[in-house]
């Protein structure tokens, strides 16, 4: 038993139960940990009643992405496969991702190909993952990445813990970028695998304005926390030039500015070799049509 599936949820009972039923049918039969982020729609009781074999962790408040950290504290397998309450791993995909991690000991993250349901069309972000401009080290099983998508990725649990997991400061929305930079600083590779399939049926129960606001804020905080001063200023200016001039952007900029004092206290610029890798991605990301949170 190499993999534990970790799922976080809040107030999306119907899609949650459907996803858990799909996970139950996986041929790999992985153990599953569900973290409920303070749902008010009866989700945790429904999980306890219908899926008693799963570990259920009930948080009285919405922890955001930090709920994954809580779950990983309970993981006893070497690998953890993340998904959300509206994403699920295709049968066989968990085993394929685990096999890649087994065979490539310096890879910490495998991100799969995301198919949007209904219809099974590729998510627009897949093209960018597949055509990543990062140099590909010899022996890497797929394109090298500078970040990953938590709802469609498998990670080494020990690497996740050693890098600190997801930052409580960022809460939710583009939280993977900071963790990815810290993983690369520790010498790990992130990789895309085209034959590892993950399905996503976006729930209608979401607040796109909140997610975009946090995504803009977190992109700025991550830039200021890890990039050299000159690059941080340039990247900030370019980002501001792409944002719509609306209330969501305004609120995000106010929140980002309010965090400057703690950002300066906790700032740790990346080592040169990691910065050079990420710089390769700056221009493609700026021109991306699949960027989330900032469009």
TrEMBL record:
Family annotation (Pfam families): Glycos_transf_2
Stored Gene3D superfamilies: Spore Coat Polysaccharide Biosynthesis Protein SpsA, Chain A
InterPro entries given in the database record: Glyco_trans_2-like, Glycosyltransf_2, Nucleotide-diphossugar_trans
Domain of life: Bacteria
Swiss-Prot/TrEMBL keywords: Glycosyltransferase, Transferase
Domain Glycosyltransferase 2-like: 4-138
Similarity comment: Belongs to the glycosyltransferase 2 family.
Name of the protein described by the UniProt record: Glycosyltransferase
Source species of the chain: Actinomadura fulvescens
């Amino acid at each position: 038993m190499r993999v534990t599936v970790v799922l976080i949820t809040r107030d999306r009972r119907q899609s949650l139960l459907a996803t858990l039923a799909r996970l139950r049918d996986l041929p790999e039969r992985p153990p599953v940990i569900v973290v409920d982020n303070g749902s008010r729609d009866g989700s945790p009781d429904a999980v306890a009643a219908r899926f008693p074999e799963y570990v259920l962790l009930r948080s009285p408040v919405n922890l955001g992405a930090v709920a994954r950290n809580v779950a990983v504290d309970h993981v006893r397998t070497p690998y953890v496969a993340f998904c959300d309450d509206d994403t699920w791993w295709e049968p066989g995909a968990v085993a394929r991702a685990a096999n890649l991690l087994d065979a490539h000991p310096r890879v910490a993250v495998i991100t799969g190909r995301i198919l949007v349901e209904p219809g099974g069309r590729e998510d627009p972000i897949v093209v960018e993952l597949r055509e990543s401009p990062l140099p590909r080290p010899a022996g890497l099983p797929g394109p090298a990445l500078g970040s990953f998508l938590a709802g469609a990725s498998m990670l080494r649990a020990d690497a996740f813990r050693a890098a600190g997991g997801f930052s409580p400061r960022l809460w939710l929305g583009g939280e993977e970028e900071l963790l990815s930079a810290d993983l690369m600083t520790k010498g790990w590779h992130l990789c895309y695998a085209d034959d590892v399939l993950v399905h996503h049926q976006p729930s209608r129960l979401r607040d796109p304005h909140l997610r975009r606001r946090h995504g803009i804020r977190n992109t700025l905080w991550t830039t200021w926390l890890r990039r050299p001063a000159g690059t941080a200023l340039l990247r900030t200016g370019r980002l501001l030039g792409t944002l719509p001039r609306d209330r969501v952007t305004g609120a995000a900029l106010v929140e980002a500015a309010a965090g400057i004092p703690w950002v300066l206290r906790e700032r740790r610029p990346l080592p040169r070799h990691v910065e050079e890798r990420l710089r390769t991605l700056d221009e493609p990301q700026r021109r991306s049509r699949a960027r989330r949170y900032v469009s």
